[in-house]
Amino acid sequence: MDIYAKLDHVNEQLARTLTSIASGVIAPNDVFGAIAPPAMKVASRWNLLLDMDPETRTTLEMALSHSSDIFDHCCGSEAILCDLSALIADPGCSNQQLHYDTRFSDDECESDEDAEPHQRERCRRHQQKRLVTAFVALQDVTMEMGPTLIVPQTTSQATHNTVADSQHEEGLEFLEEIATKGMHSTLLKGDMMLMDSRALHRGTGNVSAIRRVLLDFAFMARGMEPSTYCGCIKPAVGDSEFLLESFRSQPFY
Predict the structure, then answer these.
(1) 3-state helix/strand/coil string of 126-154
(2) Alpha helices, DSSP H, located in 131-219
(3) For strand 212-220 and strand 132-137, is the pairing parallel, antiparallel, or unpaired?
(4) What pLDDT score does 38 carry?
């Protein structure tokens, strides 16, 4: 399947959705997920929740044909699909505020020097069971189109505590300072980027004349209950509990 077909499909769905909202047929909360905590929402950005239709499933199978082992390692063999949406940034939208999607507390055991070997091993296995997010480019994403900026080494409890207290002016200055250490994820059509959902990141401003669309999906370890996570997935899709294993297929070449 040409991945451009999925891009056209998303654009058509967004147009229908906005028309339905304007006419009062549906409510925004029924079709859009949060693109960040409410205070960080930016005009001309949408997180369009997707159905598990044949086109979407095929795109997921393509994306996972060479990456499912990574999700398996990070989230476990029974990882569950917990995000399925299209991240849309229209021309003229500004930067999001730097943020994390989930805030886990398992960093506490990293510094427990008095732990017994078996406790360290149990903790190590627990830390591997993370929520991993994937962004798939449905078209080339240039610097001008507002690529996602991700800041490495920001999954620590100390960093998250600082971010949680960043609503005052000094905190906002801190966020802008660490944003300078981030990496812009420019992508070619069909490229996929994986991110630990605890990493600080943001969508950057789209100063081009082209809409930027990313397919967003994520898998989470069964039984994990991360805090602050919004679960950007349609209830019908989430309730189906699609397992990572169900998307394994023959590699696409």
Answers:
(1) HHHCCCEEEEEECCCECHHHCCEEECCCC
(2) 157-164, 169-179
(3) antiparallel
(4) 47
Question: In CATH, what number does 3-247 get?
Answer: 2.60.120.10
Task: Name the CA dihedral angle for 25, 43, 88, 19, rounded to a multiple of 10 degrees.
Answer: 20
What ranges do the domains of the chain cover? 3-247
89-92 LR contacts (CB < 8 Å, sep 24+): 89/44, 89/45, 89/145, 89/146, 89/203, 89/206, 89/211, 89/212, 89/213, 90/44, 90/45, 90/206, 90/211, 91/44, 91/206, 91/207, 91/208, 91/209, 91/210, 91/211, 92/44, 92/206, 92/207
Element at 235 (helix H, strand E): helix 235-239
Over the chain (253 residues), what is each successive 10-residue block's mean pLDDT? Answer: 76 93 90 64 84 91 91 90 95 90 60 57 56 94 97 86 68 81 95 93 95 95 70 90 84 48
